[in-house]
Fold these 3 entries.
Entry 1:
Amino acid sequence: MAETRGRGGYSRRTLFERDDELLLFDSMLNDLCGRAGEGSAPNGGLLAIAGSAGLGKTTLVAEVRRKAAARGCTLLAARGNEQEEGVAFHVVRQLVQPVLAAVSEEERRKILGSWYDIVAPAVGLIAGGSGVAPDPQGVRDGLDWLVTRFAVQNAPVVLVVDDAHWADEETLAWLSSFALRASDLPLLIVVAYRPEELPRHAAEFRRLATRHGSRPLDLTPFTPAAVADLVRNVLGEGADELFSRECWALTAGNPYEAVELVARIRDRGLKPQYVNAGELRELASAVRGSGLIERLERLGPSAVRLTWAVAVLGTDADRDMSAGVAGLGAEEMADAVERLREARILAAPQDIPGRLDFFHPLVGTAVYRSIPAAMRVAMHGQAAFSVSEAGLGATAAARHILEMHPENDRWAVRQLRAAARDYLRAGAPDAARRCLARALREPPALEERAEVLFELGCSALLNEPATTVNHLKAALEETELAPELREAITYRLAQALAHTDRMAEAADIVAAEAKRSTSASTRLRMQAETFQWNAFRADEEDSPARSRRLAKLADHLTTRGKAERYILGLRAWDAMVRGEPAETALRYAEEALEGGLPWTDENWGFEVPVLVALTFMYCDQPGRADDLFTQGIAECERKGWRGAHLSFGLTLLGYIKFHRGRLAEGEDLVHSGLRIADRVGQQIPAQWFALGILINILLARGRVQEAQELSDRYNYGQVVPNAVVYPDSEAVYSELLIARGLRTDAEERLRAVGRRLEPRGMRNPMWCPWRPLLAQTIAHTDPAEAAAIAQEALDIARRFGTPGAIGRALHAAAKVASGADSLAMMAEAVRQLERSPAAFELAQALVDHGAMLSRAGLPQDAADLLMRGLESAALCGADALAARAREELAASGLRPLQLRTIDSDLLTSQEKAVAHRAAQGWDNRRIAEELGTKERTVELLLSGAFRKLGTNRDGLAGLLPQQTRGTGLKGVPGH
């Protein structure tokens, strides 16, 4: 493929030896255009064009664009630039800004919808100096939504990125993930790049073209025959073969060099005959490298300075700005532009009026590298000021400041800090970190240094928490430190230490600040942080003492500011974990929520709001926890927090669904959370939480082999986290060992869990059921100890006081007991679980109780329990338990009747009637008398309401629909 250009600027393109590439594109274009609008599935895809510099990628891309436009496709096009590789979302903005700039602000907000605040800063619609910073994944998700919507509404669409090896890191990260969707959209993505120049961070992009068995189009140099055709095409049919062969040899078939050499021959007026071959070497040397620069210098100093300015400015190079940076007057500028275009150094006028660009990227690279180092630095300084004066924003100026030498310039520090704020708001923390690191070297004024260190530490928190620790420790050592800033730095430092698995240091740093500070509010805030990080430590030495101090502090709080509410929330969680009465934990949790506990407050974190919500779950009110998590996840999504925060949210919401007996729904949510955690990193808390919960759910559904494969894939159970996670990883892995029949190994691990948790006072079997599991494990080898351990768990559960905890403990105790005691405890377990929202555990107890009665010779009593257990298991998605219930029924000589249960969260009219009366404090006998039914019927109706609403009796009033709450029960039978 080649391009020839006449002196008048007229361009004509002739394509050589690219027929196969164009045929492939035509085929993909036919699939795209032939199917779009016909009601059939979209058939987009990815076309990757790879080749070294000068092999004709840009010319081929231009032909691709021409063909796509001729077929009526909508085009989105962008091009990487060597000097702007570090400007976040630079290429994305080229793709989408023309689309968004063509409509009004009102229409833009309509197009972006709820994604506006997340995506708008990244695509350059608004400045990013204020608001909550989204995480990178949130921005990528928003871009996915925007481009998907555009592709569907403007089908068929061809998205082209040329020189992708120079695209910014943020664009490449987005494109690498989004391109996988192209085959499901009316969208063809075409990327062209130099494979040998792809940066290290482009590993996913490099693999992109080889997925699904495809490979990139690897462009090759021209053959001698193609160069001969080129020579004849430009210089006439009189060109002899040996002359053409020499042209090929001197250029190695590189299309750009061959075209330029032939153009030089034409300009020189050299006849294309072998007798003139001796002059070709001189002409060939002027095509590239030093020869190109020598040719440029012969055009005069004005032309040289102009090319330097264009090289430095990059895509910001228009006539006025280039003239200012080059120091040229209007006439001198016009003359230089004309001569440079004639010399094929600058390109002919393009689509953007006044825009200056090089004829080929190779020219721009050669020119930039030829600028003397001192002059290059000075010109970047002039460019920084020029783009700032032109209103192009701090990020445009920062690109140039990054190329300058530190000079103790306050203006440069201000620009870099402003650029960092813009980048953070755009979801580009790496770009922000580069700006702030450079600002620190400028250096900033003494009074600004701590602020810059703090901002730098915050920008690196997600990706480089260890580096964050160093910066924030340095910030704390600064002498010029305002109290508010010191508090913020201390909080962030503790957070960074926790992220690097240094919980003890995190707790120590906030404890020290609590002692040092003279501000009452700061001391209280730091006390809250100390309690929090100590609670997450797996190696805390004196947890009971910390619990006593926390209880004393919580009981003496007289106000309800944010710090106070966080302390109350921590007190609620601690009370639950220790197994104090559930009503105590719930009282503190309710007080913590008064005034709100936002999930996305960057200065406080989301850990305590999560703990408060989970307190409700463990206290038999998972419906309330469900509501709080749903609100929190929505808050995260609105702010663009779609990384670790969203992973935790989805994972723990799945855990709540598990506690409500909704196993399939819970599994889906946890899988989603684990996928996000995998993108964030390996061996991180988000993964530990997701893996433990997912293994729990898989075991509950009877998929033991799948649970084991998951454990093996992530090395779960082989490494004990330094932080407290829930469910406890050792206890979960022990449960997996029990399911596999490896009871000896399970026993050893469970005893280790007890030795670890018991000294800390973490005794609640609802939070970690190591005692019931251990009792089950040793029941055959040491029944006396098993019974004693199960009774101990039951005693703790009774103190905790929720029907769910008592029912679970009774169920476990019944399984290790014998005879009449076993039957009595199992019957009581069923009655307790009927009073809780624990649908899966109730199903287990029903099946176990039915099986016991069947073996005791009471088939009729067994049948009712087994049938209820079967219905409940099927409703929960507990396939293995349902199969066991069918087997037990068959073994009793009974055939399962048609299942009666309907999977719905809506209360029946009978359930509403009894639930509303129970919420008003009526006991079951009074309700039965009022409705003219049996007390047992009331119990069963309430059990259904508890399961559907996700609460026990105590939480009914808070979850029943507002419109029917109170004494008026319109439409309810009996009124």
Note: The two ends are 86 Å apart (CA to CA).
Entry 2:
Amino acid sequence: MKTINKIIIREFKFSLGRFLSVSALLTLGVFVLIGLNVTGPNMRKTSQKEYELSNLADARISSTIPISENTQSYLTNLKEIKKIEFSFTTDTLLENTSKPLRVESLPDTLSKIKITEGRQPHNKSEIILSDNLKNDFKLNEKIKVQSPKSSQSLEIKNSELKVVGFATSSEYLKKDKIGQTGAGNGVLDGYSYVVKDAFKDNRPNFARIDLKNLKGRAYSEEYEKKSSDIVASLQKNLNKQNSSRIEESRKEIDDQIKTANDQINTGKNNLNIAQEQVNNGLNQINAAKIELQNSQNELNQNIEKAESLQQANTLEILKQKQLILNDQNQEILSKERKLSEENELVEQNKLKIQKLEDKVNQAQESKNNLSNISLLIANRNDYNDGYNNYGEDTERIDALGKTFPILFFLIAILVSFTTMRRMVEEKRVEMGTLRALGYSKSHVMREFLLYSTSAALVGTVIGSILGLIALPQIIFKAYSANFTFEKLILDLHPWYILLGLLISLFSTVLASWLAARKELKELPALLMIPKPPKDGSRILLERITPIWKRMSFSHKVTARNLLRYKSRMFMTIIGVAGATALMITGFGIRESLNSIVEKQFGSITKYDVIAVYNTRDTKKNVTEVKNKVKNNKDIAKYTDVYFYSVYSKQNGDSVRQNISLIVPSDASSFDKYTSLRDYQTDQQLNLNSTGAVISEKLSKVENVKPGDNLTILDSFGKSHNIKVSAITKMYAGHYIYMNQSYYKSVYGEIEPNNSYLISLKDSSNKSVNKFSIDFNSLDSSISTIQSEEVKSTIKNILNNLNNLILVVVVAASLLSMVVLYTLININVSERIRELSTLKVLGFYPKEVLMYIYREVNILTGFGILFGLGIGYIFHGYVMSVLPPASSMVAPGLSWINIFTSIFLTIIFSLVIMMIMNCKIQKVDMLEALKSVD
């Protein structure tokens, strides 16, 4: 037994390079297998703990008008709702800036905030800000907020508020791109919380809810599916309640209009009577004035006549008449003043009637806007962008975990299997000697089993440690830069460790056991004799005489050896091909995702912003919006469209696909704003009356093709069937395009255009933001959707993947080096006598090196060629599952990617060549050429 142990120790000592290379192969395989497969679950567990600590609401109900007590009671009593908390929210602008700030009432028990500094607000003059604003404001600093629209009043009581703390919320997980808003530039700068008393209205406008009968944790299929089904069911109930609210509002408005009209009619009748009385009085006064004037004129003549005749008695009588006329004049003036007062009352009544008429007009406009009233419910995926984005990020990591480890381990298994089998063959003579000395087969086999088991254990342990700790931390650090999660929860995941160990043992122990078992079947005497080399045979190239005659001796030997040792040839080609394919895929992932921005916004989307407004607002406000666009000197071009958000959802799917429905007013010129090209032929598509054009990724998600029907739903859950007439190339977002005629055939009526697709003369962020701010300040504006924001979202995904792709590329590069080293080492080791013979015969060191490396270079070249094909296929598969659900990439690889992968493989090969050259030069020729007999 001591002899066996010494042999085992010596084997570890003298074949340390082989041991380390096999261990390194298995380490890389286990590292990638465990790392990519546990990171997603670890990230989900981290978020699940955060959601549970904050008691994140399962769903959120929002209303466009305050929620009445009647509706609150109705919602509270719904059987699917376990708990409901009514709250307040409003979007404001930080005073003298265009930065939107969302103000909400402090949550009680659902979606509790996490204070990072300071304390909660205690009164209506205090506020706690989101943690991302910590660099802009300080504790105890006072901030001022204002209404986003000048015609609207602020919905909170105090415009000046004292900052008492900073906090994070599980409802706002992203540090940037917090959410969309109709204020400022359309993107929230931050969020904040105040006490409920800080709001002017005592009626809430949204509610957080906890649902009954939910199972599983966040992101689990069980939870998401059940949550989605309950929300869909609740929306039907909310639609009924909303219809009741609308009818109540309509009835209330009708009553107000009827009462006002009655008052107007009564007032007008009374006004007409009063006006007639005033007019009659004025006529009478005018007649009296004329009569009085005539009497005064006659009296004046008589007085003059009496004075000239000096008739004193007559003058006395005439003076008496003058006094009477003066009294009559005073009486007329008194009546005139009275009529003036009555006339003022008439004018006041006219103003009152005018106000009533204005009130009726406003009520009528409110009645026309009743269709805008909504009561909607959304689950976490729909009301919480951060929740949805984080879940998709973990799914992308899962997708890599289901693909890359397969190729990594296939290569590792192949090379490890070959290495261990070759090790047993090298020990053939030693095995025969031990058997001849009386050692049992199990004792002889012990060396190989211990060696292979050790390599498997070392590879598994190191790979597991790196995979369980290092890789998850690297990936989480990249993703947490955009999310509020602070520390990753690490789990042991024993099943993945066990799987890695079993695969490692399969790669080494099974290979060595099979090879040793085969060899030990022979007699010890035969084992002590080296296997004779394979018989030489003519190759195809020898039959092509003109070429064969012109080849040198070294080249002829190389050609024969390549085809003589077919297993070695295939192992080298497959190993290099696999490593090259992994590098191509790694480099190609980032490159392909980068192409989304370039292709989408370089040749398809040609507008800078979508400006959406309320067509049911007052004529004055709508006209103001239209003039803002038509008379804007910063706009290069624009077009009217109808823009509406819909969604699709397959049976059994827990996540809805949000879709932008666009109906252009002028379909013939729509290509100036969005290029619609057939996804297969690249020919231009025209909108027609027979169906809709949908984006390519939507067609893949919903599994539809031209001629099929697609069911879409509006925000109220009402479904409509559309026929797919064509599929257009689209790399970012889900879109449906229709002309007005087909829209009418689907929805029964043509909606008025409610949006503009706008291209600015200056497409910089500054200019787009300036336009968005100006547009959103208008009363009828709803929101602006910037193309730059979509670009930014995609770039964030790319940035998150950077470190992950870097790890994959580095791992693939290391795998390439280890594979080349292992296979070349095997090649050199099994041909050491051959190389020694060449050195004895006087071959120069360079010739001896190239004797081996000429074969290696040729096989590496073939491996690279096969690797390009495998990489193209593997990259295509990975990119079909890796991008977000609403994005896709164009197939294909760039030459830069291909050349980079080829260059690195060649560099690795040259590095290994230098290492092997040192080994070859150190060979003891005499020792190697000694006869084993």
Note: The longest helix spans residues 221-309.
Entry 3:
Amino acid sequence: MPTGELTQTQINQSTVMLDNDLMNPRYTYVDYLSDHQQNVDYGLSSVQASLTNLNATLDDEIGQNVLIMNKDEVAIYDFVVSEEGYYHIEVDYKVAAATLNQITVAVKVNGQVYYDEMSTIEIPIIWQDESKTYLTDRYGDEVLPNQVIDGSWQSVSLYNNTYVSVDPLLFWFNEGSNLVTIENTTSSVFTISDAKLTAPKQYLTYQEYQTQNPGTKHDSIVDIQATNYKQKNSSYVQAFAENNPSLKPFDSVYKKLNIIAGNTWQLSGQSLSYDVEVEQAGLYKIAFRYSNNKFDFPVFRSIYINGEIPFEEVRSYAFANTATSQWNVETLGNAEGEFYFYLNQGVNELTIRAESEPVQNAVRKVQLVIDHINTFSLEIRKITGKDIDKNRTWKFTNFIPETPLYLESYIILLKQAITELSVYAPNGSASSTINNLQKALSRVENIYDDYERIPLYLDDLVGGTGSISQFLGDSLQTITNQPLYLNQVHIYNNHTLAKANANFFEVVGSTFQSFFASFTSNKYSLTKEEGVVDVWVNRPITYVDMMQKMADQTFTPETGIKVKISVMPDPNKLVMASAAGQQPDVALGLASYMPYDLAIRNAAYDLSSFPDYWEYSSQFAPGAFVPYILNDKAYALPETLDFNVIMYRKDIFDSLNFMVPDTWNEVIDILPELQKYGMNFYHPIAGGVAIKWFYQTSGFVYQFGGNVYTEDGLRTNIASKEAVQGLTFLNQLFTNYALPEQVVSFYNSFRYATLPIGIADFATYQLIKNAAPELTGMWEIAPYPSITTAEYGTNRHYIANGTAGMIMQETDQPDDAWSFLKWWMSTETQSQFSFTLQSTYGPTYAWISGNINAFIESPFPEKHKEVILEQIKWLIDVPRTPGQYMLERSISDIWNTAVFDGTPTGIAIDRYTIQINREMRKKMIEFGFLNTNGDVIRPYTIRDIHWVREQMLNASGGYHGSND
């Protein structure tokens, strides 16, 4: 085991060993800088180039050739360079005002990609608030203004989308002609014009800056509210109302937008720009009223004055940790004193940008260890098989002689990462932020002491909770995130700044005022107002607040219809409210089974009675309507959707040389190899509780062409040939092919490679996308596996649905309610809501609208969106009947008895069919469809996706997927 101070030779050898052992090693910009930084020439001359594309056109506004960059469009430049060397690339561009998604481009120089980040370069969208006069809602609270895109021409030096460096990316250019291509890899359209090569900058020290910028220190103070930024380069950075008397502005009763929220301003590269006006040119100090709740660790910000970092010391300036809920006032400076910045007379631009460059070298080492552990653990599984013999006397170096060297390399790289990070932490290596790295290091050292028996420590390596992989994966996000909460910026000289935190009496006084106000507030309460469309929403207040604001800004002015949107804390209140005659006009965010439950009790309004219902509905997925149909009447619109796709680990599939399965038979084909290495495939039925729901159990019935009900809806059809085939196939996946019957968390199992492939829904997709940073670039999605039969062809049907919106039967203003529902579910409104939701609260608030056109415009990665859109064509849900609960429970019991008790599927189906039909008959009698003799009084008709498609086709001429 390596002891003592590490040498650079040890670090380099460990890096090379692990990197060379990977099948597809990363080569990052951090690696590129490490290899070439010493050769950078800071004295190069700039080089200009225009577009050479034949389809470029002259723009009269700027007098330059421009190219509209649609998806996959490639801009081409020919740079004639007189001095070879490393240059930055700067481009002129303009973004359309309707752009919703981030713009990512891929750059090549002379056909080469020097490092991974060249494929994910961001063209930033510049955002401004529509107004700095904050509107208030009906309760007096300030609400966030709309964000608008600056559609003017911009110049930007290229960075990758994670902004791993303070300075722009460097690219090598040969002497002579160099061909540069910039390809738009997203659906967001922008316009590009001239490009320029610029030399890297060597920064002055503060001492040099002082010498070059003499000036007078004028008595002055300029207070800038943090929320009063001029522009920002990320819509996710948001103002927030913090209820704290230490802040300005503050009101103990009403919310005041008074800070930039650190949880929205934590990604490297996110910047805010402010106008700073001073009466006289001269030297000024800059102070920040901020909070940093990152445990025992600073966050970093670069300071730009008029577009330039003035000196080295404010390049990734460290803002120290503050206690929780405490604020600090810090004047920029170092141990030698406070800094003075030269400002011109009049307006100057101050830009503050989040940075992670100081921690990137350590992060790169951690990521390399994670990548290698994933590969190494797979190699161990190849040798040991699924079941590791714990009684065997292992001498693992007989199989992999490099085992101790691998572990030594882990120890060296983790120790070095901790050493590099400790420099910034007030408690050094004991910092809470790097505590998980310490835990991982300790576990690696324990394994190293017994490396010959490493198979017995496989769970410690990658086994899940408490494993080395988990500790390291969790560390990545903790270390790289840079959350800074900002209240005010002060530009001043010879003034005393107010204390950072309110005193005891101020805190107690504001607390009592807030407490008493809580007894009189009726915010978002479920109270009916005369002449107002009353909308109940089964979602948190954050959603309701945004919906109310949108309705007040657009729907009411356009239609004259007033709307009150309230939180529905418990959807079951709808049934009780209906019985008490206190139901709303419109209900949103309902589980897909609820419209039917209300309709069968005459509490839901027949939406299909509106003449434009089916024409309007053709914007939605046909399969989502199935549970909303009762005897040819439709009672809801699908507000949101869900999807099922295959999610798989690319790194593992590449290592095992597997093809991604496209059919269920192909899934079965890869199971023996997966299981040989202690891995498996995840089916959603393993993630439920004892009772399995339709979405977990019934998919194969429909994939084999069956139905769960007879056409008259009076009996179950699970004993039909197709249904038996489907349920048998489902059960055999577990009894014959050993899929795991119970999985606590597919998210964790996917991260730790015990289940490197499986069926994922939207929630799982979001978790992996946003909460597994160690897997960035190592996973992908693919279509749901198909079943092909001679009679029904290829079928990818999956059972899913999202939430529903409906109108209640007792409404006294159905036309106004329908107008609101159509406005809410329109492409324009849903697109705006999806975009505003993510831009306000971040990527974890993704919204899959039931309106397909709106989803097409939503900010999802294009590659993933294409897969999801194709899969939504196959979305289907189970029709509802009065006795459907017994059917759902019984199909669950069929699976349980077949898998756990060994009962043949056919026998289990026969046994439960009797119970299901008995209960269905009882409920049909209860709801007046049959008499006590079982004779039909009122016919009950089951409608499926084909019937829904027919209604849409007749009304509008098409539906999602009809043109395929």
Note: The mean pLDDT is 92.
